[in-house]
Amino acid sequence: MIDQPTPEQPKAQGRKKVAVACQGGGIHTSFAVGVLTEILRDIQQNDRFDLMGLSGTSGGALCTLMAWYGLAQKNGRPGSEQEAINQLNEFWDRFAASRPAEKLVNQFSYAAFRAQEMEVLGLSASVLGLNPRSAISKAITAGLPFLGVRRRYFDLHRLLDKSCPLFDRINWNHLERRLLVGASDVISGIETIFDSDCNIPGGKHAEPVRATERWRERLPLSLPGVAASGTLPEFREAEKINNRDYWDGLYSQNPPIREFLAGVHMQYRPDEIWIVRINPQQSAKQVQSHADILDRENELVGNLSLNKELDFILKVNELLTRQPAAGALANTYKEVTVRTIMMTGHTAGTLRYSSKFNRSHDLMDQLRAEGHAIAQAWLRQWPNVGSWPADAAYWPRPRFY
Asked: Which residues are CB-contacts of 23 (< 8 A; sequence separation ≥ 6)?
């Protein structure tokens, strides 16, 4: 157990230590780009709280990786909030369909998922050649560069390598912030976290890595690990790491929360966890059509694992209020406030499962702009905003809307 703060810990006393956790949701996580940008600007301009960690799954993992990478010390040079803002937004601009050929590919792909969603003539994404394991899909992918499509548009590894060229030169021992990325081991069903703390010899924030604990494991953070977190089987073959297959963390943790608290030295546990929610907790309508079913299935899968982790935090908070502050429970656990930042109910109600695969600039910019607006309003009122679970409901609306 570490009893004394290390030099890398925040020196200010009394300020809240905050962890930000971003749900996955494909292109819908453009909303998180706007939110994270405003959080970083608030730190840059007002310095009201200490950002001690980030976590994400799938598209949320891509967002948090870029912000974390911009903040991290690399090649002996410190990062900054402005570098993190630039890194995050430039990555998302690269991710969008920009060239004419990319726009055509995007329209085709989106139309295939939309056809599947609407049951148009029984068509599905796999029938139209989007199954990543099909010969048709592989032939199409091989020919895309000849049509003017950037390789990093369809090659996630190339995009991550280009976006994080100094990843191998990160100064792990001087990291101030932790990054957790969620993925799922396809064969064993083990819930996997790629954790920057595991890149530090002996660890810093958490207890040393042990053998797989029941159905969970922590592995060192890596760019392939982030790619694994974004591997939906509709789009990519399973990500192989050390001869094991990984899929999207949507199936296990969306996003990782438990590892901010379990087995973590007390001084590194957050006072607040802010959830950037992409999948609405509630449905705006009755679920009847095939499109409604696909949409709601995806939202439920993206929320149920998260809610179970958050429920445990609420239970611990409840127990702590019943025990004396100096009791044994208080020496092991701490009270943590969970808050939600989410898009408007109108926007959430208009988005579909298929639009999570629409890489158009228009949709991405619309969601990013809403993320900016919502986060600005939310941060102006923090800490006088609601907390989970009440603030995850659209009806009635949270007070700051």
From this structure: 29, 32, 56, 57, 60, 254, 255, 275, 276, 277, 278, 279, 302, 306
Q: Inter-axis angle of helices 100-118 and 290-322, to 10 degrees?
A: 90
Residues 50, 34: Cα–Cα separation, whole Å: 19
Cβ distance 181 to 57 under 8 Å? yes
C-alpha to C-alpha distance for 178 and 159, rounded to whole angstroms? 22
* Band of residue 22 on the pLDDT scale cut at 50, 70, 90: very high
How far is 152 from 162, CA to CA, in rounded Å?
8
- Residue tagged 């006393």 (tokens): 13
Question: What's the pTM?
Answer: 0.88
pLDDT digit string (tens) for 206-229?
Answer: 877 665 566 788 999 999 999 999
Alpha-carbon span 225 to 240, nearest angstrom: 9
User: pLDDT per residue over 87-137, tens digit each?
Assistant: 999 999 998 988 888 888 888 778 877 777 666 544 444 444 455 555 555
